[in-house]
Amino acid sequence: MVAVWQESMEINLLELTVPNNTTDGLAQARTRKQLKQEYLSLVGDLEGQGWKTSYNTIEIGSLGHFRVLMRGSLCLPPHSASGKGTSPLS
Predict the structure, then answer these.
(1) Are 26 and 16 in contact (CB under 8 A)?
(2) Tens digits of per-residue pLDDT, 11-29?
(3) How many other C-beta atoms lie within 10 A of the C-beta of residue 16?
(4) Taking all residues of the chain, what is their mean pLDDT, rounded to a whole number?
(5) Is 5 helix (H, G, I), strand (E, B) or coil?
(6) For 35-70, b where at least 16 C-beta lie within 10 A, e where not — what string?
(7) Largest pairwise CA distance in the chain
């Protein structure tokens, strides 16, 4: 999923993975996605063109479980430039 704010040149990239429903499967999927060269290159290219870019991964197991440490990633922060405290996902 991609959320774009053209006025402030901000992009939020969100990548969802449904790995094996184990703690190790969730952690391994997160590490694998965060280190994937295609995503790192995309973020670098966007930032090189002047975009403020954030990239987050969400891993939800096949039975709906997720890591407690990832709970904060389930909501995008409010858009700072709007002054309204809204998110394009709300």
Answers:
(1) no
(2) 998 888 877 777 777 778 8
(3) 11
(4) 74
(5) strand
(6) eeeeeeeebeebeeeebebebbbbbbbeeeeebeeb
(7) 41
